[in-house]
Amino acid sequence: MRRWLFGWVFGLGLFCLLWQGGAPMMWAMGDAPLAGRRIAIDAGHGGIDSGAEYHAHVEKDINLVLAKCIGDKLASAGAEVVYTRMDDVDYYTRGKGGKRADLKKRVAIIEEARPDVFVSVHCNASKVTSYQGAQVFYHPKNEESKRLAEMMQKRLADFPKGNHRQAQSNTHVLLLSSLSMSGVLLEAGYLSNGEEARLLCDTAYQNRLAEAVLATFLEYFGEKSE
User: Fold this and answer.
1) Is-contact 34 74, C-beta < 8 A?
2) With helix as H, strand as E and coil as C, how does 108-168 read?
């Protein structure tokens, strides 16, 4: 049995309307710009793995909210969205290597779905509580992943305002190194920074961040089709 988890958003009427940077984006449902594209979204951590915990905020919960918000935006633009999890679950196994087993299961779910691209959603943390800013990571083996990461990073310059972080290569993240298709890991911000943690839990901020991710994929696939 295929173990795909799909997220769908169906618009009513002829047109689909999204907002980007305060301006409406409209297209006929039959001309949805991401129609025919399949995108996998991994909400980092989950279940017994809480991820970072700061200021009474738990990373696994924020990751899932952001992942679903991003997925809703992508589905509204016509994409077929595949999730590695849609609830507070994990794929740990008993004994040594449980975390690696969890990550390998996520890899297997994504590989089976055969998406065009993937994005893994996380929140960052540091002992330096002044650190802030969304940042995108990619594996250097894949030039398309680098291109996608750099596009997304540019869209995240206002998350929060004055974010000067750059897309960065990483060879240590199993998801990035193991998957066969292009993709990125998004660290949406620092939970260890009190103000940014507040923003990451704010619905309006979450929606704006999701719209920035949507705009990235519209640009990415738009260039590929030219």
Assistant:
1) yes
2) HHHHHHCCCEEEEEEEECCCCCCCCCCEEEECCCCHHHHHHHHHHHHHCCECCECCCCCCE
Identify the domain containing residue 99 by its residue range: 37-224
- Total domain count, the chain: 1
Report if residue 16 sits inside a domain.
no
Instruction: Return all residues near 174 (Cβ < 8 A) that are at least 6 apart.
Output: 100, 103, 104, 107
The CATH number that applies at residue 137 is: 3.40.630.40
φ, ψ of residue 118 to 5 degrees: the values are -140, 160
Please check whether residue 19 lies inside any domain of the structure. Answer: no
Contact 44, 31 (CB under 8 A): no
Is residue 23 included in any domain, yes or no? Answer: no
Asked if residue 63 belongs to a domain, the reply is yes
Question: pLDDT per position in the chain (226 positions), as tens?
Answer: 343 444 433 333 333 444 444 434 555 555 799 999 999 999 999 999 999 999 899 999 999 999 999 999 999 999 999 999 999 999 999 888 999 999 999 999 999 999 999 999 999 999 999 999 999 999 999 999 999 999 999 999 999 999 999 999 999 999 999 999 999 999 999 999 999 999 999 999 999 999 999 999 999 999 766 6
Beta bridge partners of 17: 26
